[in-house]
Amino acid sequence: MFDKKLLESSELYDKRYRNFSTLIILPLFILLVGGVIFTFFAHKELTVISTGSIEPTKIVAKIQSTNANPIIENNLKEGKVVKENSLLLKYNGTPEQTQLSELLTQKKQVLDKKAQLDLLQKSLTNEKNEFPTTDSFGYEKSFENYESQVKSLEATIQKSNQAVEDQNKSTESQKQAIQNQVATLQQAIQNYSEIENAVSSGGGVSQDNPYLSQYNSYQAQQATLEADLKNQKNPDETAKQATKSQEESLKSQFLSGLASSKDSLKSQIQSFNVQESSLTGSNAYDNSQSSQILTLKTRHFQLQIKK
Q1: Which phi-psi region, left, alpha or beta, contains residue 19 (left: φ > 0; alpha: ψ -120 to 50)?
Q2: Half-sphere exposure of residue 215, counting CA atoms within 13 Å on the CB side?
Q3: pLDDT band for position 36 (50/70/90)?
Q4: Which residue has the higher pLDDT, 160 or 2?
Q5: Where are the bilayer-spanning segments (predicted)?
Q6: Global model pTM greater than 0.85
Q7: Residues contacting 246, CB < 8 A, separation 6+
Q8: Considering only CA atoms, which of 103, 102, 132 is closest in space to residue 118?
């Protein structure tokens, strides 16, 4: 049976309402209810991050005098009451005088510039510095630059023409050497032809022929064959025919050797002719110096006029 006296004990209620679940759930519930109520009454702020520039709503007027002359009298004071036709500012000179002075200054500058341009043109024409003193427009410096460019141009053209001349001399020297060699070979062919003519038709051979020894050797062999035939006692027709056949064979071999030598020399001449034809002269001389200098003069003068 349940003892009703326990209901009157505080220990029963402490154990019932002071457990772990009661201590956690109740504060969380109160916090949740408070958060919901806060959302209805709290003020929300929205922040947007961006870039921009701050500009005035209207342009601030810049107040300044339209007269550039210096002020010699200033009657302006802060808070001072002024009357009609009162003198407030007094400038040094009138605008007309100032403008006239500026125009006269510009005119003088233009005249000075024209005079210096005339000196530049005269210097370019005479190819020498005609400036008595250093000018303030830089025209004398321009003429000095022109002289420097002319000297550089002349040196370049001279170097180019010298290279052309050296190349042409070298080519001519090689051609002359080839021509001399060809002439030597042609003379050798003529010498062989002289011996060939002497063997074929019985002509003579000059004593200064460099191949005379070959001809003498051939004649010696022919003489040996004839001597052998004469030394035979009563040679029959067969011996004579044999000797004649040997002489013809010797003659044919000798003429064949001469023809072969001549063909070899002709082949060499042809090769030299090909070499000579392949030797071409260098480019023509550069004769544009005068025209280039004239172009430099015109360009320098026009550049100074445009300034």
Answers
A1: beta
A2: 21
A3: confident
A4: 160
A5: 20-41
A6: no
A7: 225
A8: 132
